[in-house]
Amino acid sequence: MRYRAEIDGLRAFAVLPVILFHAKIASFSGGFVGVDIFFVISGYLITRILAGEMAEGRYSLMRFYERRARRILPALVAMIAISTMAAWYILPPLEMQWYGQSVLATALFVANFYFLFRGRDYFAGQTSEYPLLHTWTLAVEEQFYIIFPILLWLIWRSGPRRVFWIIAAISGVSLAAAEILSRIDPGVNFYLLPSRAWELGAGALCARIHHRAPQRENGALAAAGLVLVVGSILFLHEGLRFPSLWAVPPVLGTALILLYAGPATLTGRFLALRPFVWVGLASYSAYLWHQPLFAFTHVRLGHYPEPAIMLGLAALSVFLGWVSLHLIEAPFRRRGSASSARVVAVSGGVLTAVAGLGLALHLSLGAAGRPAAPHLPADYYASVAKPNFPSHGADWQSCAALCRLVDPPDPERRVALVGDSHAQDLILPLQAMARDQGWRLDLAINTGCRYTRLDGRREDCARAREAFATADWTAYDQVLLLNRFSGLYEQVPPDRRAGALFDYADLIRSIAEAGPQIAVFAPRPTLDADPVRRALAGQIDGIGVATDFAATPDWSRMVAEIAHLPGVRVIDQAGALYAMGCGDRACFTGHDAGGHAIFRDPSHLGQPAAAQLVADWAALPGS
């Protein structure tokens, strides 16, 4: 297949818009279509190579995978290695754990599934903080590389003339699926191969057209293709359902350029200009580098960088792409004496090592044992790591009402912990105390459930409320209740707020009637910033309290409803946390005087603070 400079130039029109879109440059509102352009180009080139080899009788699946390994893995592994070194110094434990998970997913070619699970909305603001978010596109292509060569070979065996029509049929089904899924499940539609297969298929169809007959250059059609591509980049936007029929213009435009642009057309000569080709040749590595640069800068600064900084980072990513092209990509693409099987085997070993790195970061809770920044206590990361809780949500299929965590044969005390993720913070210190004291400990932890009408239509919360209604609360000596109300409570219409808190009072009343002692932990305050990120940036003094729901009249009225109930005690959680810090809400930063974290995020506690809360509760008379 002859070299076509205009295709490398077209790659520049794919990678630069993606980078500038991620840099939030307003003029490139549709820059995300650069990914779709890449998919079409990839489908075209892969099909031309494979079909050409099949026609000449020299097709080798092992040789194909060798070429893909040489093309993709060296720059990818280098980027992950250097990003991991940066992450070691920049990312706090929880985000480092997520990073490790994304490294593992990337090595296993399932990053698209991982980021679908991590956050279904690609365009949500938080996703810009994921250093390896962009590897979802590599996963889609890698899944295509696994399936397509085998599928093409099977179709070819049944008759080469059928290839075009079968690919066209599959692509048509894929486009229809994308249009339907864009209305039903936008996340699945965006990230997964079935909704993207038609874009790769469009490139494959162009390749089959050129395989049947020499390219016929057409200046008007090539120019129309460029107009469609540029128009999509400038005028499409993230508010559209995508991919769907809205993806047809950039895909069709790319196909027209592939089919009809060449040296004899103005569009072909324009795309073959040296600056475009220069960027296009480095486009793969530039794409690899831009997201880590953007994400690490975002996390390190604690806010999204200004446009000037992002433009500088965009230029740096292109420069690094060019360096990577010459120092990493090009040397590995040259085929030496190693056999295809050996290259594939070595590549598998490298991917296994990368996967092992990701798994290690996950299992170590984001390398929580590493020393923190010099201006923080050495054990800072260990105190803010999110632990592996032994029970994340009650399994209502196997638990009548509460799940048994500690079960000595003759318990001294029977304790239940009920609540949401704020109650979950107390699990480990309560578990340790129960084992030490010979208590039985049961859990009913449903993250995000308030056991009131605030839960809306969530089925898991409704099942929990039903289970509580029939639970034998007489089986417990102590019940600890802890839920978050700030944030969700304010989103409820004012005429429903009081009723929601009365629901909570009714739950407390129903438990109290059974006789156990009840400790109701008043809602804890929430912070106005991520305390760990601010601490890493040396900005602890800039953290303050955003909401303190326990100080509101609504909470006071709820407390008045339960104050007369026998055995009910309300724990001043906010006061206890303020005491661990500076002693007052006005100066509270989520840290103590020594710089140790009390909060691990704006509303959840680090384990030292959670252990102190449990110890304070246990020390109260009657607890």
Describe the SSE topology.
Elements: H1 5-22, H2 34-56, H3 61-90, H4 93-107, H5 111-118, H6 135-158, H7 162-184, H8 186-191, H9 193-212, H10 219-235, H11 248-260, H12 266-271, H13 274-281, H14 283-301, H15 307-333, H16 340-363, H17 380-384, E1 403-406, E2 413-419, H18 421-424, H19 427-437, E3 439-445, H20 459-470, E4 478-482, H21 494-512, E5 517-521, E6 526-527, H22 531-536, E7 545-547, H23 553-562, E8 568-571, H24 573-580, H25 607-619
Parallel strand pairs: 2-3, 2-4, 4-5, 5-8
Antiparallel strand pairs: 1-3, 6-7
Helix pairs in contact: 1-2, 1-13, 1-14, 2-6, 2-9, 2-11, 3-14, 3-15, 3-16, 4-5, 4-16, 5-6, 6-9, 7-9, 9-11, 10-11, 14-15, 21-23
Q: How far apart lie the N and C ends? A: 80 Å
Please report the total strand number as a whole number.
Answer: 8
The rounded Rg comes to 29 Å
Shape: elongated
Question: What do you see in this structure?
Answer:
This protein is mostly helical and 623 residues long. 59% of the residues lie in helices and 6% in strands. The strands form two sheets. Strands 1-3-2-4-5-8 form a six-stranded mixed β-sheet, sandwiched between helices. A two-stranded antiparallel ribbon has the order 6-7. Strand 4, helix 21 and strand 5 form a beta-alpha-beta unit. Helix 1 crosses helix 13 and helix 9 packs parallel to helix 11. The radius of gyration is 29 Å and the shape is elongated.
